[in-house]
Write a structure and sequence with these properties.
The complex is a heterodimer. Chain A is built from 10 helices and 13 strands. Chain A is α/β, with parallel strands linked by helices. In chain A, helix 2 packs across helix 3 and helix 2 packs parallel to helix 4. Chain B is 77% helix and 0% strand. Chain B is built from 9 helices and no strands. The longest helix of chain B is centred in the middle third of the chain and has 31 residues. The chains are: A alpha/beta, B mainly alpha. The interface between A and B is medium-sized, with 28 and 23 residues.
Chain lengths: 317, 229
């Protein structure tokens, strides 16, 4: 931990009964950083955020805000939290909800009013701000929760899947709001399952797996760490068993999607230093054909952050 | 008051916002308790009925709502506000007591108006009434903080109401005499029962002391209530 850290976790562990949710995670976030927490379901992202928000006490290790340990309750004024659930007072209007929470941070009425006007406008909730929250859709409730998290201009933002449920336009607005906040010196830590979002938004990503931090760094650097990695996307006319493909030398991860007319088989592999990516491609195509697969389309591309995620999932015990 | 910034304002706004909530919170107690006040039944029976209503509304109202807020994770949402848990818990008890008082005030006035109480008795009743409400709501919060689920909460609330009714002498002839003045409901229910003399004025500070002690216990246990699960 260094004095300049806005948020610092030092060897933090947390278990729920016999389930270890977080195991010895060390992470420091400075001013203006946007940190993306990535990982599969149950990897520990939400637990990490709840610990960072002071909602849970760690079983081991230490957490500090602005160098203060134990956590100082007065610092809550500088922290904005977005949960993965929708906590609102349903009988009240959206504006009344946002007003109540913003005023709870001790802001004067004029400041709250001006700030809420801007946020309701930018997140396109102004027309419905005086309607009861009970009438809001899921996406509107998420927008309101974002407004509540941002209204007091926090210096540390802890956001659990902030874009979940948002339409495309609201997502872009969210990204702009978070980037603006970071440019003004705020620290943003967010959990996401969207690799593209994390790659586009985060200055640093942290990959969690089974409560452990398995990779961390700037997205371009992490992608470069996939040295000689190749992504092969195969559109098949029918699904095939994939177990044998995983055994092919050089193949590090295989995933399947059935979103289109033809199933998509995505193979992440690492080209050998002596035979190159063409040989890996040949081995994969041969393997598919031997399993009875018929290839409708094929694309070879450089790896992405999602491939790093897939690779780590492939390593999962 | 359209923009609440204190918990009690928000609670009041919520209670009055919908017609259904208004009917349930204000008209229903009136419909249930007004006949009790007006019917020609013995005074002690009226007193027992009204005292039990205070206990039920206070304990169940607080505990069930708080468990719902915890299960819907609203308490977690509140826990990240820069307000300490004891501040939130105190606001909750006081806001709930205020709402309960508004619900029960008209039936209480009817009861007093038809009960033939002396001026000192009315004074004791009116001063002990808020103490009884705060005590019942504090008991409800304690029930919620000790319950792991809604089912447990209901069970503990029933046991608490029965225990408090017996110990405070709200149900005549049951419970030890010494405990009548130790619970904040004791002076209130005793004065309601004794139609002329009632409880001595000296009992009122004791009722407030015990209500404050229950509230203090709530404040001590409040971090447990707002702890994330």
């Amino acid at each position: 931990m260094s004095p300049g850290d806005v948020l610092a976790l030092d060897g933090v562990s947390k278990a729920f009964g016999s389930i270890a949710a977080l195991r010895g995670v060390t992470l420091a976030a400075g001013e203006g950083e946007i940190i993306g927490l990535l990982g599969g379901n149950g990897s520990g992202k939400s637990t990490l955020l709840r610990l960072a928000a002071g909602l849970l006490r760690p079983d081991g290790g230490a957490i500090a805000w602005w160098g203060q340990h134990p956590l100082d309750r007065r610092s809550f004024r500088k922290i904005g939290v977005l949960f993965d659930h929708l906590g609102h007072w349903d009988p009240l209007t959206g504006y009344e909800n946002a007003w109540y929470f913003a005023r709870s941070y001790g802001l004067p009425p004029d400041t709250v009013g001006a700030r809420l006007d801007v946020l309701f406008e930018r997140l396109e909730l102004r027309k419905r701000q005086d309607d009861s929250v009970a009438t809001y859709s899921y996406g509107m409730r998420r927008k309101l929760a974002l407004i509540e998290a941002l209204a007091h201009t926090p210096r540390l933002l802890l956001l659990d899947e902030p874009s979940m449920g948002l339409d495309y336009h609201a997502r872009l607005t969210l990204y702009t709001l978070l980037q603006d906040a970071a440019e003004s010196g705020a620290t943003v830590v967010f959990a996401s399952n969207d690799m593209h979002e994390a790659a586009a938004l985060a200055t640093r990503v942290v990959l969690l797996q089974n409560g452990r931090m398995v990779a961390a760094g700037a997205p371009p650097a992490l992608i470069r760490s996939l040295d000689r990695a190749v992504r092969i996307d195969l559109r098949l006319t029918a699904p095939i068993p994939t177990d044998s493909l995983r055994a092919i030398p050089g193949v590090e991860g295989v995933s399947e999607e059935t979103d289109g007319a033809m199933p998509l088989l995505r193979v992440l592999g690492r080209a050998g230093s002596d035979d190159g990516s063409a040989a890996l491609l040949a081995r994969v195509v041969t393997g598919v054909v031997e399993q009875g697969g018929k290839i409708g389309a094929l694309e070879v591309s450089p790896p992405s952050l999602g491939d790093l995620f897939l690779q780590s999932m492939g390593d999962e015990p | 008051m359209t923009r609440p910034h204190r918990f009690w304002q928000k609670e009041f706004l919520e209670a009055t916002r919908s017609r259904r909530a208004f009917v349930l919170k204000f008209l229903l107690p009136l419909l249930l308790l007004a006949p009790l006040a007006l019917w020609a039944v013995p005074g002690p029976m009226k007193a027992v009925g009204f005292s039990m209503a205070v206990l039920f509304i206070g304990v169940f109202g607080s505990s069930v709502r708080l468990i719902h807020l915890r299960d819907s994770r609203m308490l977690e949402r509140m826990a990240v506000l820069p307000i300490p848990p004891h501040g939130l818990a105190a606001e909750y008890v006081l806001a709930s007591s205020l709402l309960d008082g508004l619900q029960l005030f008209v039936p209480l006035v009817l009861l007093i108006g038809t009960g033939g109480y002396s001026i000192p008795s009315i004074t004791v009743i009116l001063v002990a009434f808020p103490a009884a409400l705060i005590g019942a709501n504090a008991l409800g919060v304690l029930v919620a903080s000790l319950s792991a689920s809604a089912a447990e909460g209901h069970l503990f609330a029933v046991l608490s109401v029965i225990g408090a009714a017996v110990l405070s002498g709200t149900v005549p002839g049951m419970g030890p005499i010494w405990s009548t003045w130790l619970l904040p409901f004791g002076p209130f229910s005793a004065t309601l029962r004794a139609s002329v003399d009632g409880a001595p004025l000296a009992a009122v500070p004791i009722a407030w002391l015990s209500a404050t002690a229950l509230l203090g216990l709530v404040l001590v246990l409040s971090p447990r209530l707002f702890r994330s699960r």
